[in-house]
Amino acid sequence: MSLLATAAQAVPAAVTDNPSADFSDTPWWLSLVKAVLLFVYLLLSTLLVIWFERRVIGRMQQRPGPNRTGKFGLLQTLADGVKLALKEDVVPRNADKIMFWLAPALAGAMAFVSFAIIPLSNGVWMFGHFTPLQLTDTPIAALLVLAVAGVGAYGIVLAGWSSGSTYPLLGGLRSSAQVISYEIAMGLALVAVFLYAGSMSTSQIVTAQKGLWFIIPAFFSFVVYVITMVGETNRLPFDLAEGEGELTGGFHTEYSSLKFAMFFLGEYVNMFTVSALATTLFLGGWQAPPGIAAIGDGMFNGGWWGLFWFTAKLWAFVFLFVWLRGSLPRVRYDQFMKLGWKVLIPTTLVWVVMVAFIRASELGFLGEGRVSLLGREYSRATLFVIACIALLVLAAAWMWDSRQARKKAEREADRPAEEVDPFAGGHPVPPLPGQRLVEPAPALAAARPQRATDDHPTEEIRG
Questions:
Q1: How confident is the model at residue 314 (pLDDT cuts 50, 70, 90)?
Q2: Contact 159, 168 (CB under 8 A)
Q3: With contact defined as beta carbons under 8 Å apart, do 75 and 69 qualify?
Q4: DSSP 290-322
Q5: Pairing of the two strands 370-373 and 376-379
Q6: How far apart are CA 10 and CA 15, in angstroms?
Q7: Where does the pLDDT of residue 381 fall: very low under 50, low under 70, confident under 90, or very high at 90 and above?
Q8: Which of 9, 101, 286, 381 could form a cystine bridge with 310, CB 3.0-4.6 A?
C-alpha cells in the first residue's frame, strides 16, 4: 500500500485531472437498459462479422462468398444459427456431464462481461437522464479484461478435459499454455499505457488522449498488444488450440448443437472485446480523429457521434483479424511459444523500463535530483544505474539462452542418426527427426506380401 500511496502523491495534478465517467444521473433501471442494449449490440455485430468475414475472404480468394440467403447473403449467419439449434445434441458416454454443459456457458458468458467497462462514448441523453455510454467503470477497469480473459480460458480447458477424449484434452492443454504465455506479454504491453495515462480507469485513459493518441508514444506496446490479442482469441495464424489438421477440432471436437454455438459466439465476441480494448487504450476510444474533432468546437466529438467513431475503429481491428485469417498460414506450436516467451516478454520488459524513465523525466521526477520510492529517497544516478543493470541482466539472459539453444542444435546435428526398422510393428512407420530407415529383417521381408506379377499372380499374393 505504501508503494501505491507514494505513486499517487508523485503523479502531478496534470495527470490525475482526467475525470472519470459520472454515473450520478444513472438509476438502476437505466443501467439494466444499457446492459440489454450492449448485449444486442454485440449479438448484431457477431451476426454481421461472420457474414463480413466470409465475404471478405471470398473476395480475397476470388469467389463470391455467401450470396444466396437474403440480400447479398446477409441472412446466411441467421440460417446457420437456426441450423445449429436444430442439430442433434450429442454427449459422449465418457464425458463429465456437469462440466461438459458448464464449459460452453462459461466461455460464452465471460466474453460478454469484459465489454462492461468499455466506454462507447462520453455522455448521452437517454430517457431524460444524461449518462455515460458505458455500463460501469472502476479504478482498475483495464485489468478486469485480463482477469475475465483468464477465467474464460477455464471454459476451454474444462471443455477439453470433460469430453473424455484425447484430442479435446490436447486442445485444452494447448489453450491453457497459450493463454498463460500471451497474457503476460499483453499485461506488460498495457503497463506503458497506464504510465502515460496515470490511471487504469478506461474512461480516464480515453480522456487522457485528447491531445495525442497513445498509439504514437506507446507504438511498441501497440504492436505487442495486436500480436497477443490474436493469440488470446485463438485466431489464425495462432488458432493452435483447435488446429483441425492436428487435433480434429481441438477442445470442441465432441460438441454439437447449441453448445458448439456458444464456443463459436464466444470466439467472435472475444474479437470485439480485445478490439474494443485496443481502441480504448491506443486509438483514443470514442474520440473523433484529430482533424474532425476540431470542427465546430467538437460538435462531432462525443455524444452519439462518439459511438460512431468507436464502432468505426472497432471494425478496423475486426478487418485486421479477417485479413490475417485470409493471408497467413498456421504457425508451428513450438514457434508460437518461442515467440511469446523468448521474444515478446523480454522485449516488453525492457520497453516498460524505458517508458518508466521517460515518464519520470517528463514529469520532473528526475530533474529534482531525488525520487521518493517505497518511503525512501534515491538519487537520479542510483536509479539510472539500477535501470542499466536491469537491462544488462535481461540482455545477458537473452544471449545465454540463445547460446544454449545454438549448442543444443549443434549437438543434435553431430549425433549419429538412429536406425529404425519401419516394419518393426508390422506396419510401415515414417522416420522421426534424427532417425533413418534401415532394411527390414529377412524374416519380415520374407513374410511381407509380394506384389502380383503377370506370370504367377495367385501364388505371389498368397506368399
A1: very high
A2: yes
A3: yes
A4: HHHHTGGGTTTSSTHHHHHHHHHHHHHHHHHHH
A5: antiparallel
A6: 10
A7: low
A8: 286
What is residue 411's predicted lDDT score, i.e. its pLDDT? 73
Cβ neighbours of 324 (radius 10 Å): 15
> What distance in Å separates the CA atoms of residue 143 and residue 121, rounded to the nearest whole number?
20
Q: What is the DSSP-derived secondary structure letter of residue 417?
A: P
Compute the chain's Rg from CA coordinates: 28
Determine contact, residues 332/338, Cβ cutoff 8 Å: no
Q: Answer with the residue of higher pLDDT: 237 or 360.
A: 237
Those residues with Cβ within 8 angstroms of residue 348's Cβ, 6 or more apart along the chain or in another chain? 185, 188, 189, 220, 221, 224
d(CA 214, CA 2): 29
Neighbours of 416 (CB within 10 A): 7
CA gap 298, 202 in Å, rounded: 21
Please give the Cα distance from 289 to 300 (Å, whole number). Answer: 10
Alpha-carbon span 286 to 314, nearest angstrom: 10
Report the C-alpha gap between 168 and 189 in whole angstroms: 31
pLDDT band at 317 (very low <50, low <70, confident <90, very high): very high
pLDDT at 9: 40
Q: End-to-end distance of the chain based on CA atoms, in angstroms?
A: 83
The Cα angle at residue 257 between residues 254 and 260, in degrees rounded to 5: 55
Per-residue pLDDT, 8: 38
Instruction: For residue 27, say if its preceding peptide bond is cis, omega within 30 degrees of 0.
Output: no
Which residue's C-alpha cell is 488470446?
Answer: 232
Give the separation between CA 53 and CA 360, rounded to whole angstroms: 44
Phi-psi map region of 275: left, alpha, beta (phi>0 left; psi -120 to 50 alpha): alpha
**pLDDT averaged over the chain?**
78
Distance CA 133, CA 303 (A): 8
Residue pair 174/240 in contact by the 8 Å Cβ criterion: yes
Contact 434, 417 (CB under 8 A): yes
Q: Which residues pair with 129 in a beta bridge?
A: 126
Q: What is the mean pLDDT of residues 378-387?
A: 62
- Can you name the residues that pair with 378 across neighbouring β-strands? 371
Return d(Cα 53, Cα 77) in angstroms, integer.
Answer: 11
Instruction: Say what the pLDDT of residue 318 is.
Output: 92
Question: What pLDDT does residue 15 have?
Answer: 43
Q: Is the pLDDT of residue 322 over 80?
A: yes
Alpha helices by DSSP H, listed for 61-140, are 76-86, 97-113
pLDDT at 462 over 60: no
Closest by CA position to 331, among listed 233, 226, 237, 248: 237
